[in-house]
Write a structure and sequence with these properties.
Elements (H helix, E strand, L loop, with lengths): L2 H25 L5 E5 L3 E8 L11 H21 L4 H24 L2 E7 L9 H21 L1
Antiparallel strand pairs: 1-2, 2-3
Protein backbone atom coordinates (compact mmCIF):
# COMPACT_ATOMS: atom_id res chain seq x y z
CA UNK A 1 0.00 0.00 0.00
CA UNK A 2 1.53 3.36 -0.96
CA UNK A 3 2.36 5.95 1.71
CA UNK A 4 -0.35 8.23 0.28
CA UNK A 5 -2.99 5.67 1.29
CA UNK A 6 -1.81 5.78 4.92
CA UNK A 7 -1.84 9.57 4.86
CA UNK A 8 -5.38 9.52 3.43
CA UNK A 9 -6.42 7.17 6.25
CA UNK A 10 -4.93 9.60 8.77
CA UNK A 11 -6.80 12.53 7.21
CA UNK A 12 -10.06 10.55 7.04
CA UNK A 13 -9.83 9.62 10.73
CA UNK A 14 -9.10 13.23 11.69
CA UNK A 15 -12.14 14.38 9.70
CA UNK A 16 -14.37 11.73 11.34
CA UNK A 17 -13.11 12.79 14.78
CA UNK A 18 -13.76 16.47 14.12
CA UNK A 19 -17.20 15.90 12.57
CA UNK A 20 -18.34 13.76 15.52
CA UNK A 21 -17.04 16.36 18.00
CA UNK A 22 -18.80 19.15 16.08
CA UNK A 23 -22.06 17.20 15.90
CA UNK A 24 -22.02 16.46 19.64
CA UNK A 25 -21.20 20.10 20.46
CA UNK A 26 -24.21 21.30 18.44
CA UNK A 27 -26.78 18.64 19.33
CA UNK A 28 -26.11 17.72 22.97
CA UNK A 29 -26.07 20.27 25.78
CA UNK A 30 -22.78 20.66 27.63
CA UNK A 31 -22.36 18.23 30.55
CA UNK A 32 -25.42 16.22 29.56
CA UNK A 33 -25.94 13.16 27.45
CA UNK A 34 -28.31 10.71 25.84
CA UNK A 35 -28.31 6.97 26.27
CA UNK A 36 -27.24 5.37 23.02
CA UNK A 37 -27.26 1.79 24.31
CA UNK A 38 -29.07 1.57 27.67
CA UNK A 39 -26.80 0.29 30.43
CA UNK A 40 -23.77 0.33 28.12
CA UNK A 41 -23.09 3.60 26.33
CA UNK A 42 -24.20 7.23 26.45
CA UNK A 43 -23.27 10.09 24.12
CA UNK A 44 -22.24 12.93 26.41
CA UNK A 45 -20.97 16.43 25.64
CA UNK A 46 -18.00 16.94 27.94
CA UNK A 47 -15.22 19.52 27.63
CA UNK A 48 -11.98 18.13 29.00
CA UNK A 49 -9.07 20.50 29.55
CA UNK A 50 -7.01 17.73 31.11
CA UNK A 51 -6.11 14.15 30.29
CA UNK A 52 -7.99 10.96 31.24
CA UNK A 53 -10.00 11.41 34.44
CA UNK A 54 -9.26 15.16 34.05
CA UNK A 55 -5.66 14.71 35.21
CA UNK A 56 -3.54 17.86 34.81
CA UNK A 57 -6.62 20.03 34.28
CA UNK A 58 -5.88 23.42 32.75
CA UNK A 59 -2.31 22.57 31.79
CA UNK A 60 -2.75 23.36 28.09
CA UNK A 61 0.90 24.38 27.70
CA UNK A 62 2.03 20.91 28.78
CA UNK A 63 -0.46 19.22 26.45
CA UNK A 64 0.55 21.45 23.54
CA UNK A 65 4.23 20.62 24.06
CA UNK A 66 3.50 16.90 24.44
CA UNK A 67 1.32 16.96 21.30
CA UNK A 68 3.98 18.68 19.19
CA UNK A 69 6.67 16.26 20.37
CA UNK A 70 4.34 13.29 19.79
CA UNK A 71 3.48 14.45 16.26
CA UNK A 72 7.18 14.83 15.44
CA UNK A 73 8.11 11.43 16.90
CA UNK A 74 5.17 9.65 15.27
CA UNK A 75 5.94 11.44 11.98
CA UNK A 76 9.54 10.20 12.20
CA UNK A 77 8.39 6.59 12.65
CA UNK A 78 5.81 7.02 9.89
CA UNK A 79 8.67 7.96 7.54
CA UNK A 80 11.06 5.35 8.91
CA UNK A 81 8.54 2.49 8.62
CA UNK A 82 6.82 3.72 5.45
CA UNK A 83 7.64 0.46 3.62
CA UNK A 84 6.46 -1.76 6.50
CA UNK A 85 2.65 -1.85 6.34
CA UNK A 86 2.13 -3.70 9.63
CA UNK A 87 4.00 -0.94 11.45
CA UNK A 88 3.06 2.15 9.46
CA UNK A 89 -0.68 1.43 9.62
CA UNK A 90 -0.93 1.71 13.43
CA UNK A 91 1.41 4.74 13.26
CA UNK A 92 -1.02 6.41 10.82
CA UNK A 93 -3.88 5.73 13.25
CA UNK A 94 -1.87 7.08 16.21
CA UNK A 95 -1.03 10.19 14.19
CA UNK A 96 -4.73 10.77 13.48
CA UNK A 97 -5.61 10.54 17.16
CA UNK A 98 -2.80 12.84 18.21
CA UNK A 99 -3.69 15.48 15.62
CA UNK A 100 -7.44 15.18 16.31
CA UNK A 101 -7.09 16.06 19.98
CA UNK A 102 -4.37 18.65 19.24
CA UNK A 103 -6.77 20.50 16.92
CA UNK A 104 -9.29 20.72 19.78
CA UNK A 105 -6.71 21.98 22.25
CA UNK A 106 -5.51 24.66 19.81
CA UNK A 107 -8.95 25.84 18.71
CA UNK A 108 -10.99 25.41 21.92
CA UNK A 109 -8.53 25.10 24.79
CA UNK A 110 -10.14 21.75 25.64
CA UNK A 111 -10.98 18.42 24.02
CA UNK A 112 -14.57 17.45 23.28
CA UNK A 113 -15.28 13.97 24.67
CA UNK A 114 -18.52 12.09 24.05
CA UNK A 115 -18.45 8.32 24.52
CA UNK A 116 -19.41 7.43 28.08
CA UNK A 117 -19.26 3.79 29.17
CA UNK A 118 -22.08 3.36 31.67
CA UNK A 119 -21.24 0.07 33.37
CA UNK A 120 -17.78 1.00 34.72
CA UNK A 121 -16.02 4.11 35.99
CA UNK A 122 -14.08 5.00 32.85
CA UNK A 123 -13.16 8.37 31.36
CA UNK A 124 -15.45 9.78 28.69
CA UNK A 125 -13.54 9.55 25.41
CA UNK A 126 -13.70 10.49 21.73
CA UNK A 127 -12.80 9.16 18.27
CA UNK A 128 -9.22 10.48 18.57
CA UNK A 129 -8.80 8.60 21.86
CA UNK A 130 -10.05 5.43 20.17
CA UNK A 131 -7.47 5.95 17.41
CA UNK A 132 -4.70 6.42 19.97
CA UNK A 133 -5.69 3.33 21.94
CA UNK A 134 -6.17 1.05 18.95
CA UNK A 135 -3.02 2.33 17.24
CA UNK A 136 -0.80 1.92 20.31
CA UNK A 137 -2.13 -1.56 21.13
CA UNK A 138 -1.76 -2.65 17.50
CA UNK A 139 1.79 -1.25 17.35
CA UNK A 140 2.82 -2.98 20.59
CA UNK A 141 1.47 -6.31 19.31
CA UNK A 142 3.27 -5.89 15.96
CA UNK A 143 6.56 -5.03 17.68
CA UNK A 144 6.26 -8.00 20.06
CA UNK A 145 5.40 -10.35 17.20
CA UNK A 146 8.34 -9.02 15.20
CA UNK A 147 10.76 -9.82 18.03
CA UNK A 148 9.65 -13.46 17.95
Amino acid sequence: MPVVAYLLLTVALIIIDQVVKHWVSIHIALNSGVKAIPGLLAITNLHNDGAAWSMLEGQQGIFTAISIVAILVVGYFFYRWRKRPLLVLPIAIILAGTIGNFIDRLTNGYVVDMFEVLFINFPVFNVADICLTVGVLWLVIMILKEEE
